[in-house]
Amino acid sequence: MSKFLANASIEVLELLDEVASKMVSLFSLSEAEAVARVNAQWPEQKFLEDSDIILHEDAYYWALFIYYDGEVPDWTPSADRSSWTPAPKPEAGTKYWTLG
Predict the structure, then answer these.
(1) Which value, in Å, is the radius of gyration of the alpha carbons in the chain?
(2) Is pLDDT above 70 for 23?
(3) Are 53 and 15 in contact (CB under 8 A)?
(4) What are the C-alpha distances in Å from 77 to residues 9, 13, 80, 88, 100?
């Protein structure tokens, strides 16, 4: 069983794993929280085609998009994000938390 809730191709699952890893490194999240945030973003989404829109952006883009709920004023890696407000993390005990 995958740690991600989305019904996805191998290529998309690899990207989702990269997104979670990027959130861990950028925002000092646990892997469990990063995966829960990805799951909350796309809980029952189907990403079965290699041409799916999710593959048109990289892990960095999706990590910022998910963590800041799409409110990303500056996409440059050197941006000062200290005043940006992250989206609330998914509620503990919900289906989004697939890792311990």
Answers:
(1) 13
(2) yes
(3) no
(4) 28, 24, 9, 22, 30
